[in-house]
Design a protein that fits this description.
Layout lengths: L1 E5 L2 E4 L5 E3 L6 H4 L3 E5 L9 E10 L10 E7 L4 E5 L1 E3 L6 E3 L5 E3 L13 E6 L13 E2 L6 E2 L4 E6 L4 E5 L4 E6 L2 E9 L4 E5 L5 E4 L2 E9 L4 E5 L3 E2 L2 E2 L2 E3 L1
Parallel strand pairs: 13-16
Antiparallel strand pairs: 1-2, 1-12, 3-4, 4-11, 5-6, 5-9, 6-7, 7-11, 8-10, 14-15, 16-17, 16-19, 17-18, 17-24, 18-21, 19-20, 20-21, 22-23
Length: 239
């Protein structure tokens, strides 16, 4: 499925993948310049590229996993950076669209509520820093947004509960009277996102949950309010 455009390149993901733009505290996600992709494989999402670097690194102190990998792919002067993969490629390999780069693993940074996923940024420089991450213009049709706030628990485990909307559709926030697909980790990441350019107060159902502080190319970022679930502090993740 075509998800977006970045630096004039089409970005495509598997039909059964889930992705998020803003459900992360990492700076590139705040700027709409990164994706987290939830899938059991990591197929290359662009037409073609050449693997420049496959590097094992040690995450910063405080991270629960002591090893992670970064993969850097050259696409003709624009570079794709992947994190949180068990690599299946080596430097010098030419990769084509849908060819596997590796197997997603649990992020070293996000535990215990995260599932295996991989992180993707498109860089305007070979230097693999989020400072050079380019904005992603989201084109994906999110389907029927639904602003109801009744959730049905589908799975419940030690780390999180997985929920769906009672009457189907995709979770949505409402801002300036318009529905937008929800893309956020609130309040724990101290920001939330909507897929759509919005302003003002953001609502989940009839409950105000934040104020828009930044409008990007195809999404908006809001500062979430503190809230409680059944009287206890908790977090909601949308992707």
């Amino acid at each position: 499925m075509l998800v977006g455009l970045v630096a004039g390149l089409e970005l495509s993901l598997p039909e059964d993948a889930y992705f998020s733009v803003h459900n992360s505290p990492y700076p590139a996600h705040r700027r709409g310049a990164a994706l987290d992709v939830y899938h059991d494989d990591a197929p290359f999402p662009f037409e073609e590229g050449r693997v420049l670097e496959v590097r094992r690194f040690t995450p910063p102190p405080g991270c629960w996993r002591r090893e992670d990998h970064a993969i850097l792919v050259d696409m003709g002067g624009v570079y794709a950076k992947f994190l949180h993969l068990r690599p299946r490629v080596r430097p010098g390999d030419v990769v084509e669209e849908s060819e596997s780069l590796g197997r997603p693993i649990m992020s070293s940074y996000l535990r215990p509520w995260s599932d295996p996923h991989y992180h993707l940024e498109i860089l305007g420089s070979r230097v693999p820093s989020q400072r050079f991450a380019l904005p992603i213009h989201i084109l994906y049709d999110v389907g029927r947004p639904n602003s109801e706030n009744v959730l049905i628990v589908e799975e419940a485990g030690e780390r999180y509960a997985l929920c769906r909307l009672e009457h189907g559709g995709n979770p949505a926030f409402v801002a300036n009277g318009l529905l937008s697909a929800a893309d956020a980790g609130i309040p724990h990441y101290q920001l939330g996102g909507t897929l759509g350019r919005r302003h003002g107060t953001v609502y989940l159902g009839n409950t105000a949950i934040g104020e828009v502080v930044l409008t990007l190319e195809s999404s908006s970022v809001f500062r979430p309010l503190d809230f409680r679930l059944n009287g206890k502090r908790g977090g909601l993740g949308f992707y």
